[in-house]
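Honest question from a wet-lab person: if I give you the sequences of every part of a complex, can you actually get the arrangement of the whole thing, not just the pieces? Trying it with mine:
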Amino acid sequence: MDLKDLYRDVIVDHNRNPRNFGKLDPADAHADGHNPLCGDRLSLYVNLDGDRIREVKFDGSGCAISVASASLLTEAVKGKSRGDVKSLFDEMHTLLTQHDAPVDPAKLGKLAALSGVREFPARVKCASLCWHTLNAALDSQSDPVSTE
Amino acid sequence: MSAQPAPRTGAIDVAAIRADFPVLDQQINGRPLVYLDNAASSQRPRQVIDTISRYYEHDHANVHRGVHTLSQRATDAYEGSREIVRQFINAGDTKEIVFTRGTTEAVNLVAQSFVRPKAGPGDEILISGLEHHANIVPWQLVCEQTGAKLRVIPITPQGEVDFAAFEKLIGPRTRIVALAHVSNALGTIVPVDKFIAVARQHGVPVLLDGAQAVPHGKVDVRALDCDFYCFSGHKMLGPTGIGVLYGRQKLLEAMPPWQGGGDMILSVSFEKTTYNQLPWKFEAGTPNISGTIGLGAAIQYLQAVGIERIAAYEHELLLYATQRLQEIPGLTIVGTSAHKAAVVSFVMNGIHPHDIGTILDTEGVAIRTGHHCAMPVMDFFKVPATARASMAFYNTHAEIDRLAAAIEHTRKVLG
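Yes, you can. This is the full assembly:
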């Protein structure tokens, strides 16, 4: 277990300076996510152009992993279609939970920096919270998402 | 019962004590384990582990049933533990010692069997803002069931229960006062004597959640003059899944059984069932026999080391940890009562407690991070979570140095 694998420079940077941080008001879609174990709380706001994400922002508070993951998510999904987001979600799920899955930086870009999380099972929920919250926003679920 | 360490005099011999705890002797992520999560669960000495193994290897059978030798041995050991518990907390009679699954079940038992039948709309249940969820939710359930109202004594910025506010809140409609003896989240030692004295004047019964108090200082239920006292085995060197409800005999006698089943009855027919006597009336089903016997061994271990000596040494550790952590820039201790158990809850500027917990673990240091099952306490201090180092008498000053160094390392990684 190497700490450097978890808190990579990209993650430390996105935690200190989260991108696309704030609210969209009005927003076409919005969802709240909560990880009761750590107290992480995130809100995701999305504006759509037809099937594509035109704008996405998040706010809330959480640990470095959850904040950096949300920040990286906003960069990764801008301009993507619902279908793209769905396959990215599956890729991220594999990245965060499958110990021996190969990491493909060409496909994942900066999101690949989160691969170290898989060595820290207690922290997987921190990294995946924003992805579940985005899914909920796109599905227009009105109930808050919980990792529990 | 297992061989216990010889009674020690003078200061605590930490090296000898540590040798009794096999789990402490290991490397975590390449470094010697520093276990500072004792408020969540303590570790077990060899004497407790051996007692449980010996019981399963030689003596196990069901209790209170057989005429055969093993059943008699198991029953003797099980009831022997009840006597050990009685002496430990100075209850007047073993009838007042009910074994439960833990503090949580003990509180639920009192909520459902003692308070629920006599609570109704307009009645009040009084707790404090310092409580663990286990001393909040059982009362919320009773409130939903009866229409009673939950009232909460506020806490102060130091993390103490506001006594003046308590005196205003207690009244003729108060059906019970339920208080933590020691806060799990902050370590505050609540001066329960004062609260009990006022409750007595109002004729209101008092339940104390002693989960964090019992292993760290002398508890005498008769001197306290409380009506119910609840605690857990696993926070005091004993097994998980075993706990104790102390209740005043006349109150327990008047209470209906909480769960039905074997062991809690004298005779059963389809027309009429006669309940067993105290304390078995509240122990339905085959009990946690090995857990109870392990709890007895844990108490004997604590007594052999000496509860007063444990309290004095842990206080030294608290002062040292408080001093070392206060020196760290950007670190704020949450809960600053002058009267605390050996718990230091803290937050750091710009660093989330969960990241602190993960980084400390890579340095071999185990602490708890999160809301500590006390979300209202977190809300009061406007933090989502804290990091909490909680000490036991097997911890050392050198381990607190390791904690401080690991926190400094955290600042370097994320600060």
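Two things worth pointing out. Residues 57 and 114 of chain A are 20 Å apart (CA to CA). The beta strands of chain A are 29-35, 40-49, 52-61, 145-146.
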